[in-house]
Amino acid sequence: MVDVHRVKLPGVGVLHSFYTDDGGKCGVITHRSGHSDLISFADVSDGSDRAEKVSLRLNEDEAHTLAELLGGTRITEGLSKLDEVPGLAIDWFSVDYDDAIAGKPLGDLTRSGVVGVTVVAVVRGDAANPAPSPEFTVFPGDTLIVAGSPEKVARAFSFYRSGALASSGVDAPPGG
Hints:
It is a single chain. The chain is an alpha+beta fold. It has 2 domains: 5-80, Nuclear Transport Factor 2, Chain: A; 88-162, Alpha-Beta Plaits (2-Layer Sandwich), CATH 3.30.70.1450. The protein is built from 3 helices and 9 strands. The protein has helices at residues 60-83, 109-112, 150-162; strands at residues 5-9, 13-19, 25-31, 36-41, 53-58, 89-94, 117-124, 127-130, 143-148. It has a 5-stranded antiparallel beta sheet with strand order 1-2-3-4-5. The protein has a 4-stranded antiparallel beta sheet with strand order 6-9-7-8, with helices on both faces. Mean pLDDT is 76; it is low at 72-76 and 169-176.
């Protein structure tokens, strides 16, 4: 585990920094105004006269994107391991304005005729809504995270997009 140092910068914001294995230092200054500075510089304790410094100013959206890219690796690795489970698919459905589910409650997929599929979460902006209830209203821009067999996830996506079930025979609960 990496030790992160936190320093309040009066009138500016907060600096979070840590040392890398190669002796460098990396940090983020989170300004009270909402933007962030990503900073990196070499350790001057090695006796050199010159410390190379890099600074990059990020707005709030850019900082969130960078955090997702850096943190997303562990999330993706974890989900990839779940994808290795035979018969299990985890997929994302981005809701568009013309999708049948847009502006409507999530509903009970089983009652709608789609069984063996679970909506794990609905992501809206920067917030996740885990295990949403059937009454949870879905809006354009939301992302639904769905788990089930690949065929049933595809069927749920088709239902969310068109509002109708594709006829694929009788659907039965898993194992039945």
